[in-house]
Amino acid sequence: MKSSLKDIAEVLNVSKTTVSWVLGGKGDERGISAAMQTKVHDMARKMNYQPNLIARSLNTGLTSTIGLIIPDITDSFYSEVASSFEKAAEKEDFYVMIGNSESNPERERHLIQMFKSRQVDGIALAPTKISRSEIDRLMDEHFPFVLFDRYYPEIKTNYVIVNNEDSSYQLVRNMVGRGCRKIAIITTNSHLRTMNMRREGYSSALLESGIELDPNLYGEVNFSDYKKGIFPVLDRIFKQVPDVQGFFFTTHILCLAAFEYFHARHISLASYEFSCIHGMPAFQCIAPSMQIARMPVEQIAEESVRILVKNIKYRQAHDDTVFPPEEVSLHCTFY
């Protein structure tokens, strides 16, 4: 049988209001002793009390729900972010609804509209950036949201990203330090500012080392079919620059696809240097000497939740005030 606030209050011989304040996290604010708060929480667990979220939302104006939109749920990076995001949100007493945009701007637009219709309190997303009409609409409505991993440098809004240019720069400089001069870059989604920043870091590292940029060492793969698309790209690079010495991948999924290419073409990995933005556990077995700039997944999730929850609560307390945007740039871990 489902227990209510009234049931807990009667067992403890206190008012229903006292129980409501304690379970609503306002015990200290209302001057309720720590001992009584402990009794209320213990009894709520004992009686398997489940809060009425609909009633709570009517009272607070919040549904305690956040929408999370990621480009690819099968990508290990985004699945890790989603897991860490849920954990961080739970600590703030928020639940998460997850949507997979599949890097499709129309699907992204639909998910944003769907989440809003479900009355989520805020949205976190890694946008496709092909179309930003829904992002502009969220800004016009002062709807709480935060971008992560990807962002729009031309608009002032909340976002959490890594220092993409510096991370790429350090990786490529390290490759040069290990004797590599002919280093190919394999990238995708050139419409994304984050990918361009990684390319800029690559270019800066080579130029500062006195190495001219060779367009034949640039390989861009169509993201929609990157597993097959990487084959002709690498075939061309090996044909035009047969003495290529190393490969820098702007994302781990391209690196994994490249390893499949090397296996299919019977090319020894030991003959080349590799570096990559973000990694996978399998990389340590496949190419143990490769350098990786590990994305700070937990920090990305925690910062995104922190900004979003702050934005949600601020908006609720000050309906006519726009919360100032926060721009967070995190650093990768190298190994």
Judged by helices, strands and strand pairing, the structural class is alpha/beta
| Rg for CA atoms | 25 Å
Which percent range fits the helix content? Answer: 40-55%
Mean pLDDT: 88
Termini Cα gap: 54 Å
Portion in strands: 15-25%
The low-confidence parts are 316-322
H/E element order: HHHHEHEHEHEEHEHEHEHEHEHEE
Strand order of the largest sheet: 2-1-3-4-5-11
Shape: elongated
The DSSP helix count reads 13
Question: What quaternary form is this?
Answer: single chain
Explain the overall architecture:
The chain is an alpha/beta fold. The protein is built from 13 helices and twelve strands. The longest helix is centred in the C-terminal third of the chain and has 21 residues, at 297-317. The chain is elongated.
Question: What are its keywords?
Answer:
single chain, 335 residues, 12 strands, elongated, six-stranded mixed sheet, six-stranded parallel sheet, alpha/beta
Topology:
Elements: H1 5-12, H2 16-23, H3 34-46, H4 53-60, E1 65-70, H5 76-91, E2 95-100, H6 105-117, E3 122-125, H7 133-140, E4 145-148, E5 159-162, H8 164-177, E6 183-188, H9 193-208, E7 218-221, H10 226-240, E8 246-249, H11 252-264, E9 273-277, H12 283-286, E10 291-294, H13 297-317, E11 327-330, E12 333-334
Parallel strand pairs: 1-2, 1-3, 3-4, 4-5, 5-11, 6-7, 6-8, 8-9, 9-10
Antiparallel strand pairs: 10-12
Helix pairs in contact: 1-2, 1-3, 5-13, 8-9, 10-11
